[in-house]
Design a protein that fits this description.
Length: about 70
């Protein structure tokens, strides 16, 4: 399966996670893994965006809408 990671969370976060897991009928570990994947994907996206923004601005693309129009 993979590595095991142990983390400490405060009581309020534990209650919220437990309630969400019960409401969605999912294991807490699945929820945490999904949240971590999303956070890491967002970090990668931000890093790429930061790298290409100067190039986009030089091309006249100043907003996300400009980029969307260019690739649509």
């Amino acid at each position: 399966m993979g590595a095991t990671l142990t983390i400490r969370i405060d009581d309020a976060l534990e209650r919220e996670l437990k309630q969400y897991a019960a409401a969605t009928h999912r294991p807490k570990g699945d929820i945490v893994r999904e949240a971590l994947r999303r956070q890491l994907a967002l970090a990668r996206f931000r890093a790429v965006r930061e790298e290409v923004m100067p190039l986009a601005e030089k091309s006249g693309m100043l907003t996300d809408e400009d980029v969307f129009k260019a690739i649509s």
